[in-house]
Amino acid sequence: MSLVKIQPVHLIRFGPAQTKHGYPKQAKASWEERWKCFREAFWGLTLIIVVMGGIYLGIFTPTEAAAMSAVYAFFIAVFVYKDLTFKQIPRVLLDATNMSSMLLFIIAGAMLFSFILTSEQIPQMMASAIVESGLGPIGFLIAVNILLLLAGNIMEPASIILILAPILFPVAAALGIDPVHFGIIVTVNMEIGMITPPVGLNLFVASGITKAGMTEMTMAVLPWLYTMLVFLVLVTYIPSISLFLPKALGMM
Predict the structure, then answer these.
(1) What is the per-residue pLDDT for 8?
(2) Which of 165, 208, 214 has its CA nearest to residue 190?
(3) How many whole angstroms separate alpha carbon 127 and alpha carbon 163?
(4) Most CB atoms closer than 10 Å: which of 12, 13, 172, 209?
């Protein structure tokens, strides 16, 4: 049996000149290729317009938008792109059920832990300490961000909002912080909590899809986590980022 020398994949497909920082680099696409890719991706990109447009036009709620996006994605996958056949639908539904079941168990555990924390009055005591400290708007927002980031590590978003929002919101209003601005700050904190262990639901979703371990997933999302933390600082101390769109739409 003769031995065949196997070349590295990036040398076979791309060549030494088509690498960047040790990673394979695809050749620059022409405008014709870009237009072709755009036409092929148009129906998938339209999903963003359907979801965001429907929410901002008041056609449906965010929860209903999720259902609409599922129906739209099913129609496009089956009848337009034809990536999904009717024979594959039962398997897709089974995979979706398995993923949903995993997330429901995680949410149930998080809510049980939240119930224990609430019974011991731990979130309330932390929020009361912030309220009674006499901080100004800047110090208050720093304390709120720290509290919500810590809570996002061990609690799921719904529990955090139900427990902490009624305590923190009146203080924010008394300090002259715009309600929309404060709501955006809370939302960004909740999103960061979705990718921080041990109760980061998005981490569990990605782990279930990629079959990667939680440690590996946590390390993989670190660049995005740092980016979101920078964005949180900008949103917190530059209110116009949060208020520009509502003002432009005449909602404020």
Answers:
(1) 43
(2) 165
(3) 10
(4) 172
DSSP code, position 59: S
Please, are residues 214 and 200 in contact by the beta-carbon 8 Å criterion?
A: no
Distances in Å between the Cα of 132 and the Cα atoms of 10, 168, 171 are 60, 11, 10
Pairwise CA distance, residues 179 & 186, whole Å: 10
CB 189 within 8 A of CB 229: no
SS3 178: coil
Q: Which amino acid is at 64?
A: E
Q: Please tell me whether the overall predicted TM-score, pTM, comes out greater than 0.90 for this model.
A: no
Of 39, 58, 84, the last residue of a domain is 84
Give residue 92's identity as a one-letter amino acid code: V
Per-residue DSSP letter, 82: -
Q: Give the DSSP H/E element, type plus range, for residue 203.
A: helix 201-210
Cα separation, 15 vs 227, in Å, equals 32
Judge contact between 153 and 190, C-beta under 8 A.
Answer: no
Q: Helix/strand/coil (H, E, C) string of 125-145?
A: HHHHHHHHCCCCHHHHHHHHH
Q: What mean pLDDT do residues 153-164 have?
A: 78
Same domain for 161 and 239? yes
Looking at the structure, tell me whether residues 113 and 19 fall in a common domain.
Answer: no
The pLDDT tens digits for 202-236 are 787 777 777 777 788 888 888 888 999 999 999 99
Give the domain-ending residue among 84, 115, 142: 84
